[in-house]
Design goal:
Length: 278
Amino acid sequence: MTKLFRFFTNKNAYLLLLLYCGIAGILIKFQEAYSLENLLSRGTELRAVISQRLSDISFYLKLNKENEKLTLQNSKLIADVIAQGNSLRDSASVNRTIHFMTGKPVNFIPARVVERRFNTRENVLLINAGSKQGIEKNMAVLTPDGLVGRVTQVSNNYARVMPVIHSEFSVSVVSDSNKTQGILRWNGKHEQAAQMHYVPLSSSIFVKEKLYTADFSTFALRGIPVGKITEVVPEKLFYRVNVRLGVNFSALTHVLVAQKTADPEKIQLMRDAVDDGE
């Protein structure tokens, strides 16, 4: 026992070295195991992330293809809806026009608006009826809602129309209740806003009265609806009469052309009167 004690006493440095080496080995082994486990864990997470990303990309590509198919189907549906809507609107407009034409003493030539220019004061309409269909210059153009304008130029199959909403357009009108007369002109601003000029302060005229073309018009038939009075303001010598036009020019698709022009004798007499006055 004494010898064993002396051996440990004399060799304690070596024994401690062995002990430390053993502990170090255990620690190194543990560290390696932890690092390997950690590495495996990180690798598993990375594979999962990559797999998820690949799955997302695949789903995205499939979704794009599905979206393309849906877009194509929707475009076809929209085209069908537009075509059907146009047919319904055209049919309704034509039916209304035909109903208006029935029983009227004046013959009308139906036409469709095929071109328009509403970006300047010199607004223009083009209709798909011309001299071959019986259209002549200075014929009145209208709808069941009211006066549209007058024909200013004619070709074989088309006619150019100066609409009411033109800076140079004017027409004689009369109110329905009080038979007050004046000259209607567009105000150059809103499409459905016009004014009735030369209405003396002695006249009787009221808001909500309807206006129609008068006998004094050199081109329009008497009695074509024009619009409704929205405001009457007295000024120095005349009333300022604001009018809302009956025709909605922004939605105008079909029109009627009255197959009757102004009486040349009447126009000549009016011109002679002007010349005599000068």
